[in-house]
Each structure stands twice: as structure tokens, then as C-alpha cells.
Write a structure and sequence with these properties.
By secondary structure, the protein is α/β, with parallel strands linked by helices. The protein is built from nine helices and 14 strands. A hairpin with an 8-residue loop joins strand 2 and strand 3. Helix 1 crosses helix 2 and helix 4 packs parallel to helix 5.
Length: about 290
């Protein structure tokens, strides 16, 4: 039986673990995990700080690189990092059993077996083969709330680093005429294709293998609405390229930003000719809406 390379991360028994978990999620977005099991908490304290996570990777090389980055960035004593190998069925079955539907306004993000019966609900179907993009993280929920506030009906959308495709799917469910989503990770795109089909929007969502450097060549660039649920580091490094995807009079929605990163992100996007017109917050996470 093939085993999956993973990292077991054990958090300190302290209130600071919750903040540490948020910063770890920012790091992981650039380290390409394929799944995250956050299931190990103190008994009876599932709302408190985590006790341990398992992070799964495509290869041992990716896993070992991630271990080095985590230790170097967070410090060798911040949390215990241990490489392990896990039989595939263990984490896949557990992931599928634990994933539940998440409602954000009119949108419900649900696994194929958890679709709500309410006919007025706009359902985004996400198969649990990836750790990101299921709606369970605050950065995704913030984007979904903001997308409903700015109303994409009748407009074109670009989804930067689409992951599972959740935001592109939600945009067309809310009335966008078309969404073009791109990612440079082939595994993410494969998952996104499954989700686009399962959500019944394959005629209005286009998926492309692309990075930001080539994104201006996409069929609808620039677009009326650009969604970028990435990281603060990516937003700062590629602010000019992201800004070029926004059509005149359009909107840019960015997320994956912690509160102490907002000023730096706003400054970088400001140099690209964009100004913040709204901020949405959940816990320590922020989504910004910007206009040219």
C-alpha cells in the first residue's frame, strides 16, 4: 500500500497556539500541501487552540522542504515538526468523513454527499481532495461574503490561484457571465475541474494552467472583478501584475491577509494604482476590496 508523505506538527500548550496556527496557514499556502488534517485538539476543547496537525504532500521532497521553511520561519522551538508517512486510506477517509457544508450568505459550500435540500441556496460542490478552498478557512469565507456584497451579476471574473475553484464557481452561481480561473498547480486544476463539473457550471467557468506572469494573456483579461485569495507575500510581490488584470472601473478582491499585513499589502497595491474602498474582517484575517 502506498504511503503519503506528511508532517506531524505539535503545538505548544499555550494560548499563543491559535496565532501560531494562523501564521502557519499563511506559510503553507506557498508550500503546496495537498491536504491538512486539523483534527487533533484537546479533548472537549475543539474551539480552543490546536494540539496537532498533519499536513500531507505530493512528495517527500516537498514535505522536507516544508519542514525546513516552517522551522526557519517560525523558529525551531515554536512547534514540533516531525516527518511521517501515512497510509493513503487513513487520511482520505477521515477527511471525507469530517468535511461538512459551510454557509456564507446565499452560498453553501458542500461536499457531494452534503448538499442542502433548500432550493433557494446556491450550492458550490467541492470534493475533499484538497486542504484549501473548502470554505472552512476564514480567508475563503471573507471572499465569499465580499463577492456577494459587490454582486458579480452580469460581469466577468478572473480567479487568481483558483485552488479548488470555489470562488470562480461561486461567482457564476451569483450571476457572473463568465469566470476564468487559473493556477500553476496541476493537482489543484484537476480538483477544480471536478468541482466545476459537479457544481454544474462547466459552460461558464474556464480553467487555465498559468502563473501570474502569463495571466494577461487569458481570454477575458482584464476583467470586471478579479479575485485573489492568495497570501500577503504574493500580493506584495506581484501587485502590478494583479492590478493589470482589473478592467477600468472594475474591482479587485484580495484575501489571505492577516491584520498586521494589511498596511504593507495596501501600500503595494496602491503603487499599482489601486485604492482600498472596503475591508471585511474575521478574527485575524482581512479581505480588501480595491478600485482603480
Amino acid at each position: 500500500m502506498r504511503a503519503s508523505p506528511a508532517l506531524e506538527l505539535r503545538f505548544p500548550d499555550s494560548p499563543e497556539s491559535s496565532d501560531l496556527a494562523d501564521r502557519l496557514l499563511v506559510l503553507l499556502d506557498d508550500l503546496r500541501p495537498v491536504a491538512i488534517d486539523e483534527g487533533a485538539y484537546a479533548p472537549g476543547d475543539e474551539q480552543g487552540p490546536p494540539r496537532s496537525w498533519r499536513i500531507y504532500f505530493t512528495s517527500a521532497v516537498d514535505r522536507d522542504r516544508a519542514a525546513r521553511v516552517i522551522r526557519d520561519t517560525l523558529g525551531p522551538t515554536a512547534l514540533t515538526v516531525r516527518p511521517i508517512d501515512v497510509e493513503d486510506e487513513n487520511w482520505v477517509e477521515r477527511s471525507q468523513a469530517q468535511l461538512t457544508a459551510i454557509r456564507v450568505g446565499r452560498i453553501v459550500v458542500a461536499p457531494p454527499w452534503g448538499r442542502p435540500p433548500d432550493e433557494d441556496t446556491l450550492v458550490v460542490t467541492i470534493r475533499p481532495s484538497m486542504g484549501f478552498g473548502t470554505g472552512h478557512h476564514a480567508s475563503t469565507r471573507l471572499c465569499l461574503r465580499t463577492l456577494q456584497r459587490i454582486d458579480p451579476a452580469g460581469r466577468s471574473v478572473i480567479d487568481v490561484g483558483t485552488g479548488s475553484g470555489v470562488l470562480a464557481i461561486a461567482a457564476v452561481k451569483l450571476g457572473a457571465v463568465r469566470a476564468v480561473a487559473f493556477d500553476c498547480d496541476p493537482d489543484a486544476l484537476a480538483n477544480a475541474r471536478e468541482n466545476v463539473e459537479a457544481s454544474g457550471v462547466a459552460d461558464r467557468v474556464e480553467l487555465h494552467a498559468s502563473d501570474l506572469a502569463d495571466a494577461r494573456r487569458l481570454p477575458i483579461a482584464p476583467a470586471d472583478i478579479v479575485l485573489a485569495n492568495v497570501t500577503a507575500g504574493v500580493l506584495q510581490a506581484h501587485a502590478a501584475l494583479i492590478g493589470q488584470l482589473v478592467a477600468p472601473g472594475g474591482s479587485l478582491v484580495v484575501s489571505g491577509i492577516l491584520t498586521d499585513q494589511v498596511a504593507a499589502v495596501e501600500s503595494a497595491l496602491g503603487r499599482a494604482g489601486l485604492r482600498v474602498i472596503h475591508a471585511e474582517r474575521e478574527d485575524d484575517w482581512v479581505a480588501l476590496t480595491l478600485a482603480g
